[in-house]
């Protein structure tokens, strides 16, 4: 059963509502999770590079982690955005 908005005019399903930008439901900033993901990936690859090849390996691993994070971001963004809407037809 659809939920009724407070003004009572429109029935709305929960997934029809547009998400708010910039804030999460708990009130925190929306960029914390992506920033933490980048930090963990870059730090992990940097640590692995340091174990394998010292300081030079740490720098290369850190940069590789940043590249992997960027590629994952682009891949996920493309997957969730879907196809762009088609332009309205002129009749």
Strand content: under 5%
Record the strand order, biggest sheet.
1-2
Number of alpha- plus pi-helical segments? 1
Largest sheet: 2 strands, antiparallel
Fraction of helical residues: 40-55%
Q: Roughly how many Å apart are the termini?
A: 37 Å
Question: What are the secondary-structure elements, in order, as H or E?
Answer: EEH
Rounded average pLDDT:
78
Strand-pairing-aware structural class:
mainly alpha
- The coarse overall form would be elongated
Radius of gyration: 21 Å
Number of strands: 2
Low-confidence stretches: none
Folded structure, characterized:
The chain has 91 residues and is mostly helical. It has one helix and two strands; from the N terminus they run ββα. It has a two-stranded antiparallel ribbon with strand order 1-2.
Supply database-style keywords.
two-stranded antiparallel sheet, mainly alpha, elongated, about 90 residues, 1 helix
Topology:
Layout: E1 3-4, E2 11-12, H1 32-81
Antiparallel strand pairs: 1-2
Summarize the structure.
This protein is mostly helical and 91 residues long. Helices cover 55% and strands 4% of the residues. It has a two-stranded antiparallel sheet.
């Amino acid at each position: 059963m659809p939920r009724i908005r407070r003004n009572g005019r429109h029935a709305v399903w929960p997934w029809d509502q547009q998400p708010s930008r910039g804030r999460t439901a708990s009130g925190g900033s929306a960029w914390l999770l992506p920033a933490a993901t980048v930090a963990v990936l870059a730090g992990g690859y940097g640590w692995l590079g340091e174990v394998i090849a010292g300081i030079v390996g740490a720098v290369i691993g850190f940069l590789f982690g940043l590249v992997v994070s960027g590629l994952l971001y682009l891949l996920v963004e493309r997957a969730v955005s879907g196809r762009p809407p088609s332009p309205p037809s002129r009749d």
